[in-house]
Amino acid sequence: DEYTWSETGYTMSLNETAICRGKGSLLPLVADEYTWSPAVRAVLYGFGMIYMFLGVSIVADMFMNSIEEITSRSKQVTKKDGRVITYKVWNPTVANLTLLALGSSAPEILLSVVETLNKDFFLGGLGSATITGS
What we know:
Oligomer: single chain
Low-confidence stretches: none
Distance between the termini: 37 Å
Shape: elongated
Radius of gyration: 25 Å
Structural class: alpha+beta
Largest sheet: 2 strands, antiparallel
Number of strands: 4
Number of helices: 3
Order of helices and strands: EEHEEHH
């Protein structure tokens, strides 16, 4: 039982660990990255993950502030008898449910977009079924 990777001609048994030597969408950052010390790579990827999580938290905080601003809008209407009635323009429950749906489907949608961009806009294994399923 052997596995052959046609691009490099590298043959290995199923008991060996494969080393990613190709160029991915984002990682590996440089061609010879697999030769670096695992500790150096772990530290660099750890800092990268922390940086990404901070970015996601900032964007999510801005998005939540926007949702709160939109749902807090109200409108005043003057009745014929002179009374002023204030009512909310947006239903906060609907807005929060929309946020929940978007937040739970965002990873699948982003994976599908990245895959589509990497395959020169051809449908891949994830494709539209991922978005439809979410």
